[in-house]
Amino acid sequence: MMPVQSAASSSATPEVRVRYLLRQYYRLTKPRVVALIMFTAIVGMFLSTDGMVALDILLIATLGIGMAAAAGAAINHLMDVDADTVMKRTKHRPLPAGNLDRRQALVFATALAAVSMLILTLWVNPLCALLTFASLIGYAVVYTVYLKHATPQNIVIGGAAGAMPPVLGWCAVTGQVTGDALLLFLIIFCWTPPHFWALALYRYNDYAKAKIPMLPVTHGSKFTRLHILLYTLLLTAVTIMPFATRMSGILYLLVAIVLNAVFVGYAVALYRRYNGILARRTFAYSIQYLAMLFAAMLVDHYRESLVRLLGGAMSI
């Protein structure tokens, strides 16, 4: 396998250099994060209607929202380059590693943001474009530039921007924001603190070295673990609300109960005694939790159609 340095060197073939450069731009978009954002946005689209989402809206809206999320990630890389340079977890990212420069990142992020806004405004609807732009500014500027370095509540306040994708998906289809869309927002808003604080616990040294006031740095491990537990309990209550409001049915409720029981179990174990491996597992589970919770909503929403489809297939 060709080392990264040699792949980018002047002696490498043009094809190799182009592929290397494209890979660095791809990494700049935080693809795993963007994938989860796009998935929750897609679920929001399908939950917004009793029927099926038009294929053109599904594809165009997902593309526009995904590009905006990628632009936000690239701006986050750009604004955080100094902190990323001193953090073990992030020092190999494209900018601190010197694989891309700031100008390249800025042009790339600006182009993604501009195209995404054009797509959403012209081919989806202006409200979706406006809310997507507000989310982009909220994450890339308000959170990254100010909140992240100003307060240990950065994740809580900044989580509003990260909780918007299902609302954007909902708005893309309906052109409006309803109470059910805001409930999806609330779920991700409550999920964000225990998700990120689990990461911050086992990356404490990184955040302290970079002088980022994450909760474990400013208030200690025990205080953070208590708040992980409290927010997980709050999240459990919030995720029951789709069933209580009849937005989702019994299938979703059963899945939510199981997923929450596991999450609370992790939070209780972590609160009782800190363990770096357990914090990592809690963080990893939180990602799986959100994906499975939204998948359960989607399946439950179309459960009658799925039952009819399976019944028809079995009768053939």
Q: What can you tell me about this protein's structure?
A:
With 316 residues, the protein is an all-alpha fold. The chain folds into 2 domains: 1-177, Tetracycline Repressor, domain 2, CATH 1.10.357; 196-316. The chain is 80% helix and 0% strand. The chain is built from 16 helices and no strands. The protein has helices spanning 4-7, 14-28, 31-47, 55-79, 81-86, 102-123, 126-150, 154-162, 165-174, 179-202, 204-209, 215-219, 221-244, 250-272, 276-301, 303-315. Helix 3 (31-47) runs antiparallel to helix 4 (55-79), helix 4 runs parallel beside helix 7 and helix 10 packs antiparallel against helix 13. The radius of gyration is 21 Å and the shape is globular.
The span between the termini is 51 Å
Helix content: over 70%
Uncertain ranges: 1-7
Indicate the CATH class of the largest domain.
Answer: Mainly Alpha
Q: What class would the helix/strand composition place it in?
A: mainly alpha
- Strand content is under 5%
Number of domains: 2
Arithmetic mean pLDDT: 93
Main sheet characteristics? none
Query: Which fold name fills CATH's third level, the topology of the largest domain?
Result: Tetracycline Repressor, domain 2
Gyration radius, in Å: 21 Å
